[in-house]
Amino acid sequence: MAEADLDATRALVLSLKPRFAEAILTGNKTVELRRIMPRITIPTLALLYATGPERSLVGTCIVHSVARLPIDVLWRRHGAKTALAKSEFEAYLTGRDEGVALFLERPDRLPAPVPLHALRRAGNFRPPQSLAYVRHDQRQRLIAALQ
User: Strands across the sheet with 131-135, in order?
Assistant: First the structure.
């Protein structure tokens, strides 16, 4: 997949506990769970924001596919790729009939984490609760902060 294939209008920002961000960056987690279906064009760039105590942008990856599946099917097919224990998986999706799987590839760790204060200066960045979208111009400012 070429860089030109990515959605040029915006990127996805995923807020992740630091252990999950690390698991994505090491390739141990290739499926990210969400409760709601993101409104994205496939493939799309995802910026990985590690929440407290790190509070930093730590890397990127590509979301190459998305699937909404019944909970039992989601666990059976993809549970091992989520870096979650079954109890964590069930707790996260409690009350849902379906869950959303974001299939990730090409993780890329930044040379150094970009702390929240630098992200705010560069692009008026506010860390999302779960996920957010950044427009192309804001993404360019954030990328400039990485260099």
Answer: 31-34, 98-115, 56-70, 44-50, 10-16, 131-135
**Share of residues in the chain with pLDDT > 70 (%):** 93
Going through the chain in order, the beta strands assigned E by DSSP cover: 10-16, 31-34, 44-50, 56-70, 98-115, 131-135
pLDDT band, very low/low/confident/very high, at 1 (cuts 50, 70, 90): very low
Distance between CA atoms of 130 and 34, rounded to whole angstroms? 8
In CATH terms, the superfamily for domain 13-146 is Hypothetical protein. (2.30.130.30)
- Strand-pair category, 56-70 with 10-16: unpaired
34 close to 94: Cβ distance less than 8 angstroms: no
For 57-91, the pLDDT digits (tens) are 999 999 999 999 999 999 999 999 999 999 999 99
**All structural domains of the chain with their residue ranges:** 13-146
